[in-house]
Amino acid sequence: MVNAGDMNGSGNLMDFLDEPFPDVGTYEDFHTIDWLREKSRDTDRHRKITSKSKESIWEFIKSLLDAWSGWVVMLLIGLLAGTLAGVIDLAVDWMTDLKEGVCLSAFWYSHEQCCWTSNETTFDDRDKCPQWQKWSELLVSQSEGASAYILNYFLYIMWALCFAFLAVSLVRVFAPYACGSGIPEIKTILSGFIIRGYLGKWTLLIKTVTLVLVVSSGLSLGKEGPLVHVACCCGNFFSSLFSKYSKNEGKRREVLSAAAAAGVSVAFGAPIGGVLFSLEEVSYYFPLKTLWRSFFAALVAAFTLRSINPFGNSRLVLFYVEYHTPWYMAELIPFILLGVFGGLWGTLFIRCNIAWCRRRKTTRLGKYPVLEVIVITAITAIIAYPNPYTRRSTSELISELFNDCGALESSQLCDYINDANMTRPVDDIPDRPAGPGVYTAMWQLALALVFKIVITIFTFGMKIPSGLFIPSMAVGAMAGRMVGIGVEQLAYHHHDWIIFRNWCRPGADCVTPGLYAMVGAAACLGGVTRMTVSLVVIMFELTGGLEYIVPLMAAAVTSKWVADAFGKEGIYEAHIHLNGYPFLDVKDEFTHRTLATDVMRPRRGEAPLSVLTQDSMTVEDVETLIKETDYNGFPVVVSRDSERLIGFAQRRELILAIKNARQRQDGVVSNSIVYFTEDPPELPPNSPHPLKLRRILNLSPFTVTDHTPMETVVDIFRKLGLRQCLVTRSGRLLGIITKKDVLRHMAQMANQDPESIMFN
């Protein structure tokens, strides 16, 4: 027996794997990343750069560039996300107005921009100007009458159907991943799951274009959720330009967390709310430096959007408001009632929407996505047009509902009966009796509320970009405005009641209905998404008033309590479970008294665990094992008899290593011995070259004993982001627990179908 190393000199030994080769460390589609390994690789890379930086000035400059690359990526993400958001806002504004008419002086102007440039616009008729013509005026020279109304009605529906059809066709043909809100998938990707193409360039382009089309079509959906997806696509694109992020999936997810913050920053004009949203709602791993970088990305994105000024009001959002009246302690009662309404609406929406989406998945309905979008768009347009509160864009509706009634307001909601002798500052108008316009607006709002509640259930989840923030806020704002007007009129007509006597005297400005709309919007959004801290911060950044934090907090907490009483899942978690994504939610509690041995594979009666031995298998044996199984990796043991654990080898890296060895090294054949030890085994003379694969072996796989409680195992998987965990007893391998096994077990313990976890 001779040492194989002496056959052709130790230099020729098959140890080329000491040099890294392409694709090692990468992952296949629909697989989970190994957070510990990614962290370890980044630490090694950083250590290498630090030691090299002391060798020369050039290496020192390279180390500085590496340190600054994170901030450069954040700057680029903020600039692109802010620019895209501004372009989307401008395009939506124009295309929404295109359904009703066109500007003759410049067809690319929206209604508002068209009348800004006119010299013939009066303050009372600021929505009317000769340059802006409705379709009936342009085509049949009539602005009033039944024929003009019917023609405008017909063209409104046709434009809506045209926009929706174009959007669903683009998504279906070019980027199927551009549909939905994107937040459930972003949460899953940030938890370590790989969905190739979900954040790709085509998805970014198609989602941006189709988002404009679907929002302009008048469907009951918003652009805020999809803007998070768009920002994360920007983050993915820029991180691929820097090897620090492109070659490390863990580091890439830090960039995506910051990109999500930038997305919310431009969606709501709320940079701080965006950072908190990323931390509270979407991120799985959020170290302190990611917090700073998220803040910077959100700041740059907000600054870019502010520079574009899409709404022409020097604000970041369409519905920026300022109130001039303080709130009073007695008003906490209706605020809390709005919180209860928000929680109940959230529960109703989640259950009905998930039931409908499940039906779409399991019946023939799912085979006709284009037809479904066309039908829902037609129904929406036909019902929405007659009601002025559903005809306009949802953002404009929320803006009107949030508004305080000043002396210059012309809205129906501000049609109060004025006292002829009133002489007060413009901002301090006392409570007044409601006029006929307010009562008309109330029943129109009531009809709009019922319509929005029903149609949003069927709209969210179709094969088009669809956000949920704006429809949820609209439902809450409508309910809140009606409650606010009710409380206001009650206070005016019954100011001598004990509840009003102390704070609402005759002639005082006591109740602000717009504030109730804002609180209702926060309550409904909280009920659907279960956000709390970030929601309150977003809402007060929207309104610019710190004074109203307590009402917002009261409503947000109440809506979460009420909704949690019926089920702990928010809409995004519910869609994650519906799609079967392997997402271990940090908020879920596992309290069952099972052990690792109850969950590990193999179970009693199952085939023994597929393993590799450290120095007794040939290349052909390894290839056969890979071909006959579909496992992501294999434990490496000393021998099949002892079952003493050595380490763990990933399937993908074994395939790549053997393929590269056959291409780059003479003498590696099917009966070459594969060994994972430091020194080659003793082989007979004239044996083929052995293949050393120690470099791809993970020598410190995470292990637990067979009596470890599953509560601890679940915690380990959550906090360390493991792909798999090996089960041993006294160093002897017994089995393996994968993330999928943990999710199946948790589903089983919750009396759910364990096979609903579809992906590896």
Automatic annotation (TrEMBL):
Gene: Clcn4
TM regions (residue ranges): 68-92, 153-175, 195-215, 227-243, 255-279, 332-356, 368-385, 441-461, 468-487, 515-540
GO cellular component: a single term: early endosome
Subcellular location: Endosome membrane; Membrane
Alphabetical list of PROSITE patterns matching this protein: CBS
Keyword Repeat recorded: yes
Pfam families, alphabetized: CBS, Voltage_CLC
Membrane-topology descriptor: Multi-pass membrane protein
Keyword Ion transport recorded: yes
Keywords, alphabetical: Antiport, ATP-binding, CBS domain, Chloride, Endosome, Ion transport, Membrane, Nucleotide-binding, Repeat, Transmembrane, Transmembrane helix, Transport
InterPro entries for the chain: CBS_dom, CBS_dom_sf, Cl-channel_core, Cl_channel-4, ClC
Protein family membership: Belongs to the chloride channel (TC 2.A.49) family.
Domain CBS: 600-664, 697-755
Provenance organism: Chloroceryle aenea (American pygmy kingfisher)
Name of this chain's protein: Chloride channel protein
A GO MF label: ATP binding
